[in-house]
Amino acid sequence: MPLAIDSTVKNNSYDYFEKALITDNGFREYDVRWLLGKEINANGFFLMGQAYGTYAQERLATNRVVVGHDFRKYSQDLCRSMILGLLATGMEVVDIGLALSPMLYFAQHHHKCRAGMQVTASHNENGWTGIKLAHNLSLTLGPDDIQELRQLVHGGLFKSGRGLYIQDFNLAHHYAQDLLQGPPLSRPVKVVVAAGNGTGGHFAPDVLRRLGCEVIPLDCSADWEFSKHNPNPEDMAFLHDLSKAVLDHGAEIGIGVDGDGDRIGVVDDQGNELFSDKLGLLLARWLCPQYPGRSVVIDVKSTGLFLKDPVLQAANAEILLCKTGHSYMKAKVNGSGALVGFEKSGHWFFNTPLGRGYDDCLVSSIYLLRMLDALSTPLSQLAQQLPKTWQSPTMAPYCADHQKYQVVEEMIRLFQQQKEQGVLIGGQAIDSLVTVNGVRFVFADGSWGLIRASSNKPTLVVVAEACASLNQLYDIIEHIQRVLHETGLVGEYDQQMPPRPVSF
Questions:
Q1: pTM of full prediction above 0.85
Q2: pLDDT at 185 exceeding the cut of 80
Q3: Which domains does the chain have, with CATH numbers?
């Protein structure tokens, strides 16, 4: 008999050890995430192993699975519970131990294994946990697959068998060799590498040194309390620390990696924080002329500059818009045959012949460093070649999981009305709406604002870009915050714009 599922199990109780705590809100759009002790326990991870082991045999036609985990004080124990569940279904488990999420994706190719499970909460705060779930090579489960997995968990009709456990704790060696197949840099680029004391600190500095960089580590030591700040290179506090280190050491670039090593955040040689969508545009300008006719995928949070860039147009690079989310982006890049895909959050996806189509902070870092080496131009000067726009940070106001999609639907209806009524936002009327993922309202000059539901936390996502002025950016953000506040369902923001300047 499968473990009894109870979503109300108390943390400090006998039931905590005898029942499976696992709540439905953890089954999100493209991975699964819960608060440990409140929404899932170790028995819940055992059930997840049983469910995915069954899914892998029935849907992926394989009985082999690669597993790994990130650097959190509870991740290894939860991974072992999950492994027991996999073994109970008769799966052959290849355990790679402490690893970045892209190391798991690489391990699937290395071991020719279609199934994979990575225990990670990515950049979420301590107390969060979750799993990234493979759906064949270089792909991860999407929303329909996640819901099928949820039904398997509740149905309890799991495969049964005697599994096999194999350790491959030498995977990091093969991973590094694969990354460093090309020639070393022609000169020792001086780079600050920041890991927020997460998993990336164990792997990134060594690989970049072997590439030929002079590496200055920042918060690369082990500290699973994340005492300084969360390992999230979209957080402004993370980027501010990175900026200071770049200036203090006279580095050419600062690269921050997130908690499970699939995203980057970047600071240039002048200490300027460059959002990853504009940085992606610089890379696309360098790569696309080398591979003319190949498309580029961007997510709905990315700068509108991609859509009218003359270098990309000359390279006949079609720009494809995609929902935000690593599973959506991987599927779009692989399915369309695009050369590369960029998310504003720092997930970048390099496809054949540049990569295997999955997101990897080190693959991204290596191509960025090779671009700087090849062009012999400071990153700050390359950024100045782009048209000037003003961008907000990515902001996440609290909104309960069971209400956030309702709020987004309300926002879609509201902005449709405001478009029809000619409502002015910062003196401009809405020219068009993009509703592929939330609502992105666009003005005639290319400026825009976006509201969407977060796929991995009980929050919304708010982003904006202005083409006219900083003043316009504040007008857009303040309008968004006002209409969200009026719903009565939106709470505190994780970060805010700095105070509006008195004059411009």
A1: yes
A2: yes
A3: 15-171 (3.40.120.10), 189-269 (3.40.120.10), 275-387 (3.40.120.10), 390-485 (3.30.310.50)
